[in-house]
Amino acid sequence: MMSKQMPSEDGFVSLNVRASVLQKMLKGEVLHMTDVHCTCAHSKRTLQQLLLKAVVDGSER
């Protein structure tokens, strides 16, 4: 049975990222959302909101 993870109040989002994907991120290359895995539902929602905001902010430039 999976344990329920409580969302962190410290502002961090829990993610699992492959080392190769982290290298791409650091190099500024394009990556696919399937490369990033959230460890809890709260982190997943937070990541989705941040990505949507980034897309909207980027399209307004």
Topology:
Elements: E1 15-17, H1 19-27, E2 36-38, H2 41-59
Antiparallel strand pairs: 1-2
Give a summary of the structure in a few sentences.
This protein is 46% helix and 10% strand. The protein has 2 helices and 2 strands. It has helices at 19-27, 41-59, and strands at residues 15-17, 36-38.
Secondary-structure element string: EHEH
Record field, number of beta strands? 2
Mean pLDDT: 75
Q: How do the strands line up in the largest sheet?
A: 1-2
- Major β-sheet profile: 2 strands, antiparallel
Terminal-residue CA separation: 47 Å
* Structural class label: mainly alpha
Approximate strand percentage = 5-15%
Low-confidence stretches: 1-6
Query: How would the global form be characterised?
Result: flat
What level of helicity do the residues show? 40-55%
How much is the radius of gyration in Å? Answer: 13 Å
Number of helices: 2
Could you characterize the architecture of this molecule?
The chain is mainly alpha-helical. The chain contains two helices and two strands. It has helices at residues 19-27, 41-59, and strands spanning 15-17, 36-38. The longest helix has 19 residues, at 41-59.
Output the keywords.
61 residues; mainly alpha; 2 strands; 10% strand
